[in-house]
Batch of 2 targets.
Target 1
Amino acid sequence: MQYRTLGRTGVQVSSLALGAMNFGRIGRTTQDEVTAVVDAALEAGINLVDTADAYSGGESEEMVGRAVAGRRDDIVLATKATMPMGDERNHQGSSRRWLVTALEDSLRRLGVDHVDLYQIHRWDPRTSDEETLSALTDLQRAGKIRYFGSSTFPAHRIVQAQWAARDHRLSRYVTEQPSYSILQRGIETHVLPVTEEYGLGVLVWSPLASGWLSGVVREGRDVTTNRSTFMPQRFDTAIPSNRARLDAVERLARIADEAGLTLIQLALGFVTAHPAVTSALIGPRTLDHLRSQLAAAGTVLPADVLDAIDAVVAPGTDLAAHEKNDTPPALLDPSLRRR
């Protein structure tokens, strides 16, 4: 396992980190299965575990808490807030009112008195940066969080938050957690240059593109990923963007074969090769999934392989741009772009 410094914090984290989105009912995993995955991940050298309050309605945090009990100080523990937690309209977002409550709920579910990294799961356009950063700074000063970061923020919002922290003399986001894979390279255009400029640690999610780069999605095969059971439209090859992804996967599989690598090794080796990326978040449901992904821990792709990948998916290109989670609200809601 390789280790890298998380932004400018001085904290050393593994180049592969354990994402817990599949823990609980989303991934149909039991506590025993989760504990076995966490045990194997820590034994392999992973030292960062990332979850969120919204994962299976808090169940993921509860399972992570039980799995890491007794060894809390050996891991960098991260969670997130802002996604809706129930039907109450104010049980979401990044207001002080909600973040204070959400953090207390997360600490209770995790069974800890603090988290190392608390992340704003999505940019909340209804809440000012000053409101959010002041709440996070107070929680940090209270010792309940060590650092805080953003997740899936557009580049201009990352910059604006940095300026707001400076202008109001508040603590700043020290990490960003964007989606990044060979098939979704859009963050190379704006987000990664910004994180490098401001010295942010970058924890990328979905490096296997929701299973497209796991090796199981291939021409002529039925799609059998867990994600395809509740998001079938993302794997329907009658949709042009999905057809483009499948064509790219076939070409990438040949590149992997020629390099003596699995497709997973190619995919994870690609994202961790970018100098702006600190860690790639892997999200295994089973021990077999974890082992296949851990095999990429030491993968270093040579220049000719990286060049071959660029020839399949050009730098800065998203093959499914409509699936991005950082689209400005005015592009999604006509009422926000019309008088």
Target 2
Amino acid sequence: MLKKGSKLYSILTGTCPKCQKESMYLDPNPLRLGKTLKMNEKCSHCGLKYQIEPSFFYGAMYVSYGLNVAAGIAAFIISYLVFKTSLKVAFISIIISLILLFPFILRWSRNVYINMFVSYDPTFKQ
């Protein structure tokens, strides 16, 4: 399912969307909160410049909003409908899940956004 060459692979691993050979981020671990959004300027393998234009990743805010809404709905459904908790507990579970998923959603939103504009190039060799 998660094989090199798919957009899903690039999105979930945070690798370069063009060659998928290295991480776009200086620190591949999103849990180091001070470095969560620090990115390499370009890919050292294929030379893809990640900041395609000034303020390119501002568009990732819209993706982040969608991912946060989806995560919140999923937390509510799991808590309220599956575990049959009260509404108060269900909303607390939404807040806790969004806090815990914060660094991952930040990165996933950037990964999704850049993958909307750049596709994997299997012919690229280096």
